[in-house]
Design brief:
By secondary structure, the protein is α+β, with helices and mostly antiparallel strands. It has helices at residues 2-16, 24-30, 221-226, 278-302, and strands at residues 43-48, 59-68, 74-83, 92-98, 110-116, 121-129, 137-145, 157-163, 169-174, 188-193, 230-232, 252-254.
Length: 303
């Protein structure tokens, strides 16, 4: 019934157009330009985005497509785009046109197109860099409106959603208990990731501006030669809350803290237990490799 009434209305409009020029083009377009049926235009948005979970700093690409599925040209289009959790300075939008369509003169969050022909297609590639620390959903929303009558306004907006990897990076620190009785103190920082996903691009700050008394390490090659790496298992503890009993059945490789002298910088004893400073140990090994490299170079030069 509604279609029949609309058809009669359109016939009435075509008769009136002889007497009223103002707005006649838009009315005729809405009424099928003389076809006797209401069609108008149908601008719509479709799109795709990343399928795999994203990490902060990752490049991201959304592809959004604007088409006119109606029977007549759409005029004076306004296309808006918004991307969440992406650095605005990194966002780039490119356009490819087909079916007689013409891309906007400039691309950005707001774009103007004078006409989108029937079956015309505009494809927009939106690229950017995901913010560090991004979490939850990452979205790209594109909306298109036109001055022409649109037969279906429900498909003028689309939001494409991507997901970020879920990780839980945490830092815990410990410091000596009570007043210091010597000039040195050991502080420990433990960095963990409770997951469930891998944390990528983790940055550990080691800025020289935060340090003092910087100087070269003493020779470490002799220390490396004196200490043998060991294979071992943790002892099972009687206290179920004690900790390493969960790992008692696993073979491990490492060092025995007591194999290093108590005054060695790699020692990090605390609360009556011998321990090693992993960062200091790595620095010592690095220094030893440099010493060996220098010896090899000297031998090569002497040949």
């Amino acid at each position: 019934m509604a279609g029949t009434l609309l058809a009669f209305f359109c016939m009435f409009v075509r008769h009136l157009v002889v007497f009223a020029a103002l707005g006649s083009a838009a009315l005729l377009t809405a009424c099928g330009a003389g076809s006797g049926r209401f069609t108008g235009t149908d601008v719509q948005v479709s799109g795709i985005g990343p399928s795999a979970p994203l990490n902060g700093g990752d490049p991201i690409v959304f592809t959004m497509t604007v088409t006119n599925a109606g029977d007549f040209d759409a005029e004076d289009l306004l296309i808006r785009n918004a991307t969440s959790q992406v650095s605005p300075a990194s966002v780039r939008i490119s356009c490819t046109a087909s079916g007689g369509a013409v891309c906007p003169e400039s691309t950005g969050s707001s774009m103007n197109v004078s006409k989108l022909p029937r079956n015309g297609v505009l494809v927009f590639n939106i690229t950017g860099t995901l913010n560090a620390g991004a979490s939850g959903d990452v979205t790209n929303t594109m909306t298109v409106t036109a001055d022409s009558v649109d037969s279906n306004g429900d498909n003028n907006t689309l939001t494409v959603t991507a997901t970020t990897a879920s990780n839980d990076v945490a830092v815990t620190t410990s410091a000596p208990f009570g007043p210091l009785v010597s000039s040195s103190a050991v502080y420990t920082a433990l960095i963990t990731n409770a997951g469930p996903d891998t944390a990528n691009n983790v940055v550990l700050t080691s800025d020289a501006a935060l340090k003092r008394d910087i100087h070269d390490l003493p020779p470490c090659l002799a220390l490396v030669q004196a200490v043998e790496p060991k294979a071992y298992r943790w002892r099972a503890l009687e206290d179920p809350e004690g900790g390493p009993e969960d790992f008692a059945d696993r073979n491990r490789w490492g060092f025995i803290a007591q194999d290093f002298a108590a005054g060695d910088p790699v020692r990090a004893d605390a609360e009556g237990e011998a321990a090693l400073d992993a960062a200091a140990l790595i620095a010592c090994l690095w220094s030893a490799v440099r010493e060996l490299s220098a010896k090899v170079e000297a031998l090569e030069a002497a040949k």
